[in-house]
Every structure is written in C-alpha cells, then in structure tokens.
Amino acid sequence: MTFVALMVFSLIVFQSLPISLLPPIDVPQIVVKINYPNASPEAIEQNVLSPIREGLMTLKGLEDMESKAGGEVGTIRLSFDYGTKMELAYIDVNEKIDRITSSLPSGLPRPQVIRINTNDIPVVRVQVTPKEGINYNEVSLLAENVLKKRLEQLEGVSLVDINGKKDRIITISPNLAALRALGLTTDNVINAIRFGNEELPGISVEDGQFRYYLRLATRVDTPEDIMKLPVPGEDGLAVDLGRVAEVKYEIKEPLGYHLTGSQEGLVITVHKQASAKMNLLIPLIYESLEVFKADYPEVTFELTQDQSMLLNAGISNLQTSLLFGGLFAFAVLFVFIGNYRTPVIIGISLPTSLIISFLVFYFFDISINVISLSGLALGLGMLIDNAIIVLDNITRKRAEGLDLFEACVEGVNEVQSALISSVLTTLAVFIPLVFLSGISGALFYDQAVSVAAILFVSLMVAFIFLPMLYYFFFRSKGDKIMDNENSKAFSGILKGYKALFRKVFLRRKLSLGIFLILIPAGLSIGFFLDTQGLPPIEKFDVMVEIDWNEPIAALQNKDRIVSLMESIKGKYSKAESDIGVRQFLLFDGESSIQKASLYFLFESESEKEEQMRLLGNLIAQNFPQAAVGIMDAPNAFDQLFNSNMPYYEVRWKDLATKKPIEEAKMDQWLEVFPVDQWERGPALQKEASVIFRLDAAKMALYGIDLSRIQDQILRLFGNFSITEIKRFGEITPIRLKSKDINFEQMLQTNYLIGRDGNEYALGNFISFTYENHYKNVTADKGGIYQSVTLESQNPSDFNAEISQWGADRNLGVSFFGQYFRDRENIRQLIGILLISVLLLYFILCAQFESFIQPLIVIFTLPLGIAGAFVVLWITGTSLNVMSAIGLVVMLGIMVNDAILKIDTINRLKIKYKSDPLMNSSQILDKALFEAGEIRLKPIMMTSITTILALLPVVFSAGLGADLQRPLVFSVIGGLTIGTFTALYFVPLAYSFISKK
C-alpha cells in the first residue's frame, strides 16, 4: 500500500510539474541596447556608451563589460559572476540607467535593458503577412493591439514580441517657393504647429460653485486640423498652413523589415513562462492561429521554427527506451530463465520507479525538460540492472533450498551493500560535474538530480518492492525447493563460458597482458575522433547571415534580400528574414541596418546544400564586399551554448590618447604585425562615410552663425520632430519632411539669410568628401580598444612577439577569447574527474575493506572507454555531449558488474576458508570460478537487455534518433568489451592481487 500511495502522490505531483525544452537557467548576462538615429559610431560611443559604462562600472558581481557602437545603434554586454542574483542585478542596472538618462543627449530613447534567460528563447514564431491591397499600418496595429494581447492571454505565455511593425506619422513638407514669396521661412511653419498643439496642463477656472479645466481649442488631432492653422508673417498677415506646406499621414521610415518568403510582413515570437508546460502551450497557439485565420481573412498566418520538436523527441526517446527495455528484458529473461513471472515483475518495477522519481523532481524544483529526461534515461539502464541482480539472487537462494520468504530476505541482504556501493560510485562519477562553472554546471544539476532520483528510487524498489512482488507471484508454489530454472540457451552459454574460463586461467599472465595492452591501444583511438558540441543532426533548415559591408539604407537592404529570395523561389518550403535593426524587446544580438538574417526550410538536405551553394555564388558575384555566413538554423541548444566571443582575439589600447588609432597609421602598423593569418576585429573594419566641413571664413564674412547651420543640417538630413499628438495612449509624431533628393542638391537648393538680408545657398558654406572610416567603436571596462582575431592553430605561440609589437608603439596589449575559457573548462573538468575517481576509490575501499581491490574496478573503466572509442571510430561518430553521456551510462553498468563480482568472490572466500581440505590457492580458484558462474547470468542479461533496448535507435531516423545515436554507439561499444572485462579481467586481476 505504501508504494501505491507513493505512486498516487507522484501522479498528482506530475500534473503540476512544468514541462519545458531546457531548465530555466539564468545566464549571467545583461544587454543594454541603444538606438540613436542618424548618429555616427563615434558620437554614440562618446555621448552615450561611455557615460553608461562609467555609471555601470560599480555593479556588484560585474565580471566583464563589452560595448560596441555602430551606425545608429550601440550595445553594452554585461557579464556577471556565475551565481549572481540576476533579478537584483537587472533591477540595479535599470536604476543606474535611470540616473544616467538625464546626462544623455536629449531626444534619445531610453536604453533598453535585456536580461538573458533560457525561457527567453521563443518556442514558436508566428508569421503575419498582409494580403495585397491591405494597409500595412492597420496590420501593425492589429498585431500590436489584438494579436499580441490574445496570445498573451494564453495560459503559460510570458511575453509576446513583435518585429516588422510600422508606425504612422504626420509629415510636413514646406513649399519653399511659396514661403519665400510670402516672406516666410520654415521656422514660421514649425512655430505655428507647435503653438497649435499646445496644451494647458492643470489650469482650471471657477464659475460660481463649479470648477472647469481649461483646454485650448486650437489643439490639433488630424492633418486637416494642422492645415487650418494660421502661419503669421512679419507684416502681421497670416495664411493657412495648408497653402505653404503639404500635410499628410505617412509611414515612418523603418530601420528594419521582416519578410515572409519575399513578402513584407510581421513576425510574432511567443515566449513561455518558466512554470508552463510546453506540450500544452503549443497546441493552444495552433488553436489560436486557426481562430485568427477565421477572424482576419485579409491577413495570412503561418507558424515557423517550432522549438517543441526537441522536447517531443526527448519524450519519445524515453518512451521508446521504456517500451523496448521492457520488451527485450522480457525476451532475454525468458531465454535465460524460461520463466514468465520474473519479466512481469520487472515490467511492473520500471514504470513504478519512474513515476515515484517525479516526487524528487517536485521537491528539488526540477522541470521536465530535455536535460532531466536524459538523466532519467541514464538511470533506466541501472534500474533494469538492479532488478535483474536482485531477482536472480532470490531465485538462486530458492534453488539452494531456502523457503520463499527467507529466499526473498537473504537474496536482497546478500547484494544490498554491493548495490548501494554501485549506485554511490555511479553518482561519484557523475554528480561532481555539477560543480563545473557556467551554464554547463547548471545544466548538469538537473541531470544529476534526475539520475540520483531514479537510482535511489530504484534501490528502494529493488530492496522492498521487488521482493514483495516476487513473494506475491511465487507464493502459489509454496515453500518447495525451486528446480534449476536455467533455459537450454543459457546452459549452452554457461558451458562455453566455463571452457573459455579454464583456457584463460591456464595462461593467466598472457591473458592479463592482453587486457592491459588493450587499455592504451583503445584509448589512443580517442585522438583520432572528431570532437563536437552536439552530434550532427540531419536538418532541412538553414540560417544565412549577411553583412553587406556597405553604407546602404534599410530599404536598399530589403530590396537586395527580396531579389535573393526571388532567385530561389519555389525551391524552399518556408523562408523568412529579419533585415536591418530589429524591434524585438528580447533581441540581444548585434542589430545593424547593413545586416540581414535569412531562414530557409527545405524538403531535403541535398536540396538545402545545392540551393545554399547557388545563393552563396550569387551574392559573391553581385555583391563582392558582402560577408556571408551559412550555418544550420539555431535551435534552443545552439542559442544557449553558442558564444559571440571570438576564438582568439588580440586587443590593444592607445595608452597615450585613449582613442582609436587613426586609419592611416593603423594600416601601416598592421603591415608589420607579427602573425600572418589574422582578420580585422569590429573596430578595424571600415566603411565609406561622407564628411562635412564648414568654411568658417565665409560664415564670418556673411554673418552666418554655427548654430543656424547645424539646425538647418538637422532639419534636412535628420528626423526633425516638430511635436507629437497624444490621444488615449496613441502617440503620432509630427515631423518635418525634406525633399527626396541627394544631399548635394539639398545643399544647393536650401538657403540661409546673411546679415545683409540676402539668401545664400547652404552649399556655399559646406564642403564634403568621401572617406573610409571605422565602422564600429569597441570598448571594455578599461576603455576603447581595437583588435584582430588570429586564425592560427596555436595562437598563443605568438604572444611574446605581439606584446613586443605593441610595446614598441606604446600600445597596451591583452589577449582574450573562447580559447582561454576552453582551457579553463578543461582544467576544471580534469580536476573534477580526479575528484570523481578519488570518491569512487574511497567508496570501494569502504565496501571491500581493502585499498587494493578497488583498483581492479578502476582499471575496468579505461577498458570500457576503449571499447566505446573503437565503436565510435568504426561508425565514424564524433566525441560529443551525447556520446559522453553514453560513456557515463556504460561505466555505471560496468562498475556495477565489477563490484558485484568482487563482492561475490570475497563472500565465497570467507565461506570456503573453513574447509580444512583446501589451501588458500585452491580456495581462491574455487571462489573465482564459482563467482563467475553465479554472476554470469545477471551480467549477460543486463548487458544484452541494455544493448538490445538501444539498438532500434541505430536504425531509426529523425531528430531524436540523430541525437541519441552517439549515446547508443558508446554504450554498445563499452558494454561489449565491458562484458568480457567483468567475466575474465576482474577474476584475472583479483587472482594476481590476492597472490601478492
């Protein structure tokens, strides 16, 4: 009844467990984004980023700070010590930004502060495309005011983000000829609009016992109201503004676009709450989409980049492991025992252990995600292993003549300490990985808790539930002595084992030498294996990142992307692109007008490769300056693990000026840079710029003030905002619009009035040149720096020469990049693995009460790893995260078998020690031989059931199979060698150690 109650509580708890793709990990980073229209990188760095950096320098736990200023945009990425409370850090950053805002340029939008979390990865993207003839602004309002709010109301949605919106503004286009004829200027028009939109805040009048609030009747709401405003002249006469300027609604010129295929549209990204169940949320989004299609037929809706596929693959793999594990365990047990009751007992114990494990998830606040599910999958192999060992031992005790109850008790007691040690040694290998720094350690936490949960629950089931079930199923036979339940198949295997065992022990030294030679030979194969993060997954989608490296406008960027889309139209299933500056609140990447990201989904991988090759060639032919990156479309794992950090970067700062080194001087210095293979960093990349130079002598001669020229330039080339119409939360800017002509014509067709009252063309006082200037300005906590990235295989070999090159030019040189983080991670991993081996050794010392016998178990580990490497090498599989998890699974089973084998040998030696007819050598040989015979069945059954349960994955297709296949190869390779290790190497090593 206790187990029934536990299962009921577990099922109730399971309903409340959140289901997500990844654990809700706080990435210790915060990004501050700045949009500063019409500002150069130098202006953004000097006026915005520099004061913000100084203000944020005192943040608690701040580890590093990187800033990058580009054309019209800037970003500051703050990295904190892992373990920092990011909720408090986020509040702290916002408070400091609020204090700094007053010192930033007027009119600059408040910097956006973005906190990075794994739940910020969108679970799905909704494409919203207006049909032909539909007003785009109306669709933008629909997406913002209706679709977004309806999606936010779905249970489990935390945020809905939009890109591709367009806002409506009112533009004023002055008729310069008419103004000049009436003796008016653009200033008269601007002042008239500002006066007409004035509001009297908080002014009221009394009328007897009543009080009324005043409102100016001249306040405008529409372009028609503005056109009726009077524009007074110097002689006191006034004309309607509509006679001297054109006033109309227009769409604000965007800095970025979104395309669905080659059509302009919007994209809505949906983000889930940390406690939400993704498997329930995704269907709700699909249902909402069908409602949208019915309610708004003038708009096309489509879902793309559904991230629930990975979670479904993980759940499917767990279900497959349970199904095939149960089926093959039943089949193998039937072959080995010829008994239908024992497989049924295991079939009941597997789901029981799994369900009760969810109670541990609840108490440790663990969600059901891909990481924790993989931990459960790890524990399932050990769970089957424990069940087989306990049941086999109980059966053997009955065959020895014990009654049913005593056989259940004695069968469990005999293997109890060995099974506890095997679980502890498995955890000793795995749990220390939790102490890895960064995201890796946080991810291993969920996996370690899930592994520990199912292993300890499996022990409880093996020690209490399995004997109870055994007693229940076999009580009908009473206390009769069990006959030998070995099947004919196992009898044949046992006969072959005994024959080979005798041959191995006839040549003990040679046999042990062969095993010892296999260790370095097998491990050396690891040097020939490729290393990857995740295994290569067959993907039909791809992401193309384009940087045009030209100072083009967002509209030109869009036109180029449309032409590329049209060139391969009909070849892809789905496509979308984000062009220029993105409007997403949670977008933490680099946003630039000259960049674009394209996503394609194809029918097959061959079609994907062919079209991407054609697209790359097309861009190279037509836009030779463009930088193109073609990569697999990122999934949630990629977005979490990928880093924008360069592999190896050399940074330097000008110690004298604290500014970027001018272009000409820097080019000369780079010609003698000590390393041949390098690429310019962001702060050394160049783009063409237009430089205006003022003629101060002419300005003084004609009495033209500098402020007047600056004001005129701002009106002509900037987004000059006159005022805003505010109405019920909707803000409509009123902006001055200049003619759509090139800047040279603007300089010649716009005038200033000198001190003599005559008009002079603006071009008389301004000259211009085209020059190449730095595209970006980068800085860190120490100030502005410039950098190059090295492409050498051993970049640190050149550190001394590079440092000398910098010292000769008064540059402070430092080295930075993923290279140093990888080395630190490797150092941590080696240290943690050493601790794991020591823990394993001390646990075994306590179990065996010996300092020598645990070394036998430890030497079985490299043999298993060697076997796994051999299979990985034969199948052409890389060494990656999944194959590494497979190694842990395999080592856990191998350690379990070795521990039980040694424990059985020790008990048999004690048993036979009282026999006066045998000497110590005979006792040892008999113990070794009999222990091998006793443990042959559970060792063979656990290895075969595990291998057969995983084997279907090798022949399966799809995302889940691609992820799991390296794990399967590791387990199959390790257990194949591991079985022979447990059967022959362990007794061989034991015999040599005991004799010494």
Automatic annotation (TrEMBL):
Signal peptide: none annotated. The chain crosses the membrane at residues 318-337, 344-364, 370-391, 423-445, 451-473, 510-529, 829-848, 855-875, 881-900, 939-961, 967-993. SUPFAM superfamilies: Multidrug efflux transporter AcrB pore domain, PN1, PN2, PC1 and PC2 subdomains (SSF82693), Multidrug efflux transporter AcrB TolC docking domain, DN and DC subdomains (SSF82714), Multidrug efflux transporter AcrB transmembrane domain (SSF82866). InterPro entries: AcrB_DN_DC_subdom (IPR027463), Acrflvin-R (IPR001036). GO terms for molecular function: xenobiotic transmembrane transporter activity. Keywords: Membrane, Transmembrane, Transmembrane helix. Pfam families: ACR_tran. It comes from the Bacteria. This is Cation transporter.
